[in-house]
Specification:
Low-confidence stretches: 19-27
Strand order of the largest sheet: 1-2
Keywords: Signal
Number of helices: 3
Radius of gyration: 31 Å
Largest sheet: 2 strands, parallel
Shape: flat
Distance between the termini: 77 Å
Organism: Sphingomonas taxi
Strand content: 5-15%
Helix content: 40-55%
Order of helices and strands: HEEHH
Mean pLDDT: 76
Protein name: Secreted protein
Length: about 140
């Protein structure tokens, strides 16, 4: 039962292979693949250069250097239910440290809670400084 099916498949195989190797109409007309792919970043008012039979040109602008649409970029903090379990565990650990008054937590509770207040103040200052630098860099 299996042998006649296998023989029929082997006889039909050259016909299928011949049909696949038939020439395919190429849109460029040359029938050869491009030799080079070039990515070009355009400034304001520049036009994308024309591609040829041997080259594909991909253009992007400086205003939108990412392929992700602007409305989906920087959407704010990720909700806890959509975060990896490692991030959630780290958050729970930090919350537990602050609630327990462990060292470097800046908590009024516990014996080592006060040692983290200077550290927390420094982190807040650095975050405000980074935010100000980012705001200054985004203003043209």
């Amino acid at each position: 039962m299996f042998r006649p099916l296998m023989i029929a498949a082997l006889i039909a195989l050259p016909a299928v292979a011949g049909a696949q190797s038939a020439p395919v109409a190429d849109t460029a007309g040359s029938g050869t693949p491009p030799q080079r792919v070039r990515a070009v970043t355009l400034g304001v008012g520049q036009k994308c250069p024309q591609s040829s039979d041997t080259e594909i040109v991909i253009c992007s602008t400086l205003e939108q250097p990412y392929r992700i649409p602007k409305q989906f970029r920087d959407s704010g903090p990720i909700p806890a239910k959509n975060q990896a379990w490692g991030n959630r565990a780290a958050t729970m650990d930090q919350v537990g440290r602050a609630a327990g008054g462990l060292p470097d937590t800046c908590s009024p509770v516990g014996t080592g809670g006060q040692s983290g207040c200077a550290l927390a103040t420094n982190r807040q200052w650095a975050a405000e400084r980074r935010a100000k630098q980012d705001a200054d860099a985004s203003v043209p």
